[in-house]
Amino acid sequence: MICVLTGGTGGAKFVDGLRQVTPPEEITLIVNTGDDLLWWGLYVSPDIDSITYVLSGMLSRERGWGVKGDTFLCLQAMGQLGEPTWFHTGDRDLAVHLLRSRLLAEGKTLSEATSTICDKLGVKARILPMSNSRVETRVDTPSGELSFEEYFVQRWYQDPVNSVRFAGASDAEPAPGVIEAILTADAVLLAPSNPITSIGPILAVPGIREALTGARGKVAAISPIIGSAPVAGPAGILMNAQGLPCSISGVAKAYEDFLDILICDTRDAVTAESLRRGSLQVHCTQTIMRTADDKAALARTVLAVAISGLSSDNTNADESAQGGSRPSAASAIIERP
Amino acid sequence: MICVLTGGTGGAKFVDGLRQVTPPEEITLIVNTGDDLLWWGLYVSPDIDSITYVLSGMLSRERGWGVKGDTFLCLQAMGQLGEPTWFHTGDRDLAVHLLRSRLLAEGKTLSEATSTICDKLGVKARILPMSNSRVETRVDTPSGELSFEEYFVQRWYQDPVNSVRFAGASDAEPAPGVIEAILTADAVLLAPSNPITSIGPILAVPGIREALTGARGKVAAISPIIGSAPVAGPAGILMNAQGLPCSISGVAKAYEDFLDILICDTRDAVTAESLRRGSLQVHCTQTIMRTADDKAALARTVLAVAISGLSSDNTNADESAQGGSRPSAASAIIERP
Question: Is the full-model pTM beyond 0.90?
Answer without folding.
Answer: no
